[in-house]
Each structure stands twice: as C-alpha cells, then as structure tokens.
Amino acid sequence: MVVKYEFEHKCKQSNARVGKISTPHGEFETPMFMPVGTQATVKTLSPEEVKSLGSGVILSNTYHLWLRPGADIVEKAGGLHKFMNYDRAMLTDSGGFQVFSLSDLRKIDEEGVTFRSHLDGSKLFMSPEISIGIQNKLGADIIMSFDECIPYPADYDYVKKSVDRTLRWAKRGLDAHQRKDDQALFGIVQGGVYPELREYCANELKKHDFDGFAIGGTSVGEPKEVYKEMLDMTMPHLPYDKPVYVMGIGSPVFILEAIERGVDMFDCVLPTRIARHGTAMCSNGRVVIRNAKYKEDFTPLDEECDCYTCQNYSKAYIRHLFHADEQFGQRLVSIHNIRFLIKMVEDSREAIRNDRFVDYKNEFYKKYGLDENSKTNF
RNA sequence: GCGGCUGUGGUGAAGUGGUUAACACAGCGGUUUGUGGUACCGCCACGCGCGAGUUCGAUUCUCGUCAGCCGCC
Q1: Between the CA of A249 and the C1' of B57, what is the distance in angstroms?
Q2: Would you call A143 helix, strand, or coil by DSSP?
Q3: Cα–Cα nearest to A92, from A68, A63, A130
Q4: What ipTM does the predicted assembly reach?
C-alpha cells in the first residue's frame, strides 16, 4: 500500500487517536492540519517556510492547476513536487469542491461536470477519468476521488441521487487510476445530513480498495451542531485501519471536534485567507490586527506562540503593515495562523497520548473565549 | 486698493428652494471553512465658511462679512 496508516494510541476520554501516515515523500503524525496551496503555492509563503511550520503535508488543486499552467506542464517539470520545490507529502483535491463553489457556472450529468472557466469563460468538461488523469500527471502522494460536494441544505431525494452518482464516479476513478504504486487514492463519503445515506455511502466505498477515506460535504455553511452530527453519523462506518480526512475545515472548533471523533487529517484555506485580510487566530481568540486598539500595542500577536512572527514582531508593527498595504504583513499573519493550527494539533496529539484530550479541548475553548455550545463556528 | 473665481465630512468631489446631502478614498467595526477573494458587509456631515435677509421652508436665492486663489494697479 502506498500510503500506510499506523495507529499508535487512542485517548481514553474520547475517540481521538494518534497515528502516523507514511507516503513516498515522508511521513507525518496524525492528527495533522494540512495548509492549502491551491495554485501550487501556499499563498505568500515559501515551501521552506511551510515546512518550518511543522506541516508534513500540503494540498494543491486539480481544477486550478488544470486550467493554469496545465497538467502537462507540471508533468514536464517533473511533477508537482519538483515544480514547486516541495519535497514532502502532498495531496491534490479532485476539483469536486469547485463543482460546488462554481455552481453558477456548471452542469452536472452522469458523465461528469460541464464548467465554464472562471479565467476566460471557455467551456470545460471534467469527469472522474479526467480528474484522476490530471492528478496522475500532477503526482501528489494522495489524490482524491471526483465527487459532488452537495450544498447545505439539500433535500433527501437529491442527496440520494447525488450519492449514488458520486459512488459510480468513485469506482470509475479507481478504475482509471494509473499510478497505484506511488499515489494513494481516497474515497469521499457524501450523504448530506442523512444518517442512512452517510452509512450507505461509507459502506459502498469500503467495498473498494481505497487507501483512505474522506468526509465531504462539510464546511458548506452548516451550523456547528449539524457539522458534528454529520461526523457522528459517518465515523462509525469507516474502517479503523485507514486514515480519515475531513475536508475543508479550519476553525479551531471544527478541527477539535473532528479530532475528538477520531479524524486524522483536515485542510482549510481559512488560516491563510483570513491572514491575508488581517485576522490572526490566537490562544485568546481572534485578533483583527487592523483595529485601532493595537496602534500602540508592542506585544506579539500571541504571547504563547512560538512562531517566527510572534518571536520577532509586534501587533503595532503588523497593524502598520496592513494599514500601509504592505505584503509583509500578510506573510507574517499567514505564518502565525498556520503555525497556530499546527501547534494546536501537536498539543492535541500530546493530550491524546496522555489520555486527556477532552480536558485539553475544554481548556482550549475556555482560553479562546468560547465553549463547545457557543453558537459561533469559529 | 480694485476686479474676478471659489468656499459642502479627514481628503477629493456630486447635488437640490422642501422626505434620510450622491459617490470615492481614508477612518472605525465585522465577515471569510476541500482559495473564482488586491474580496465582501456594516458605520461614519442634525449639516453644506460665518452673519443677516427673502420665503410656509434655504446648503441651494439676496446682501454683508471672512478666507483662499487668480488678475490688475
């Protein structure tokens, strides 16, 4: 098996677990947060910086790289790792999310999805075979099934129809996969908020030799309670000896709730996106760095953080950079936010090993200024 | 000293004899969850240089006054 999951320990307080995933480009401990580098770059950061933050794996995106610069060019460069000079594990999303996020420009049928390019308006067609073919050329260590990420809310009949189609697409992708020796393929569980559909989808996927499983259709605007229900109705039906990945979650609350339920991997643009707009995730809650109250605050974003930004720069300075529209500010907050989440999963792993993850989570929430039942998703 | 032009929020700048003075930028606050994000959403002049007059009503008309700019002595 290309990607091997090794279980290490399950926390006595919950289903949270610690393990290790090995790939052709190194191994990483789980639970792990994966920064997103959609266009073969984690925006504003160099690969060396990303590595120094403690991430063992980053994402890139099939749809975006397909449009630009094109899969053939990445392949000619020697694959995504060489092209962007990143030698650790990488994962590519299938383009399935774009079916959702670009929904005003798409048409879905059994064969695949017809898009209109967001770059030049040209008509494009994506199918499971095309997505897997592109991902084979890109060469990430973990590639994803081409699925339909259903919006929330969606009615039962539509979700049922969509899940069946996603399952047929998953099988087609598996059949089309040409690099089973060095690229792991994960299946994606959909099913919206319906327990029987989630269970059904998981059970059908388990019949095939996927290397890991993802839970999709989350973080599409649903309330936190609904999110937790979707995890609860899905996790029991996934095999314990394979990695589990919840797609697209990045707020501390969503991540910690996933870890508590035994999830191993998560990715999100949230830390880097909000960083570029001046919001930092800190142990005492969010810091909107443009705020006037930081004008003369010469302390770090987060006194408890060990990142480059917090070791060297003050809120007043970073605030100045944002008001002066200087790019260095975006870099500094991006570095901090990614490190913050990775430090959070590092601390989670330690807590799990010490059988006190739920205590850790509650302590984190209290300091962050919220509790498990607060309404905010962040 | 004389003549002309102009005076609207932090800035630039619309506008009208009569409901809440357009817009932009800045400022202030918020949003962002498998990145279509130099994005998005709020708030921000009880007042239109000052004073008086005309009018039912004036930022808008008239007179005076002050300030700035331009020109002429």
Answers
A1: 60
A2: strand
A3: A63
A4: 0.91
Q: What is the DSSP string of A200-260?
A: HHHHHHHTS--SEEEE-S-SSS--HHHHHHHHHHHGGGS-TTS-EEETT--SHHHHHHHHH
Q: For A38-92, write each residue's pLDDT tens digit.
A: 999 999 999 999 999 999 999 999 999 999 999 999 999 999 999 999 999 999 9
- How many angstroms separate the CA of A65 from the C1' of B9? 48
Confidence of residue A100 (pLDDT cuts 50, 70, 90): confident
The SS3 of residue A162 is helix
Q: What is the pLDDT of residue A116?
A: 86
CA of A188: nearest nucleotide by C1' is: B34
Please choose, from the candidates A61, A42, A44, A41, the residue with its C-alpha nearest in 3D space to the C-alpha of residue A101: A61
Which residues on adjacent β-strands are paired with residue A213? A187, A244
Å from the A113 CA to the B56 C1': 68
- What is the set of active-site residues of A? 93, 267
Give the residue with minimal CA–C1' separation from B33. Answer: A249
Contact between A188 and A168 under an 8 Å Cβ cutoff? The reply is no
Is the pLDDT score of A109 beyond 60?
A: yes
Q: What is the pLDDT of residue A241?
A: 97
List protein-proximal bases of chain B (any atom < 7 A from a CB).
26-37, 39-40
How far, in Å, CA of A124 to CA of A14, rounded?
45
